[in-house]
Design a protein that fits this description.
Residues 79-231 form the Glycosyl transferase family domain. By secondary structure, the chain is of the alpha/beta class. It folds into 2 domains: 6-64 and 239-255, no CATH class; 81-235, Glycogen Phosphorylase B (Rossmann fold), CATH 3.40.50. It is built from 11 helices and 8 strands. Helix 4 packs parallel to helix 5 (124-132).
Amino acid sequence: MLFDFVSFLFPKRHQLKATLLEKMWMRPALARSKALLAISESTKNDAVKLFGINPDKITVSYLGPAVAVQAAPIALPASPIILFVGTLEPRKNVAMLVEAFNQLRRRAIDCSLVLAGGWGWQSAQIRGAVTASPYAADIKVLGYVSEAQKTFLYQHATVLAFPSRYEGFGMPPLEAMSEGLPVVTTNISSLPEVVGDAALLIGPDLADELSDALAQVLTDDSLRQRLVQAGLAQSKKFNWQNTADVTLRVLINARA
């Protein structure tokens, strides 16, 4: 199963040891494989471009949202919440999200920023952005959260901001949509596949564009409701039964 090619596409933002190990085994493993599964068309295309694999050898098997669990309460700000879920690392563009949040507050838009995820590789820039923010008191860094706590966050936030520079799939946007949370994300890699027409898409590394999109969701009730309904419908296109069916079919055909 091919998930992503972060170490090949972002080697300077990946741990050197992990990058070397992946580059050592990836190419020969792909060459020996009779059939391959990829979690998105984007990942499939990356494999074709990076390794020259015949695209007919790769079948896309989309993932599904996390299995629903009972929400576990967690203390949250009273103001409208911009939520980020994921590892706090440069590839996720969290420092840019902090800048977009700063812009919103300078525009007198009432909101808080909640970051849910552990600190990742090369996170010093993100820590610095959070500390330096004039609105740091309204930025809540939760660290790792459980599945139950994550469900609670999706259910009580106002919008998910997911400005990642690259994703093999992009699970947080799918999970957010399945819980009725509007999504703002980037228009690159696999993310447009996952959200379809059910989210606001922005260019990568554009804090102004991210700020404007978030402002729309925070201030326009009709837009927010449209995104909620579209997101719920879009999320139903992804489920683990389909993943299992496609995966089993590929395995049976490969064995024949």
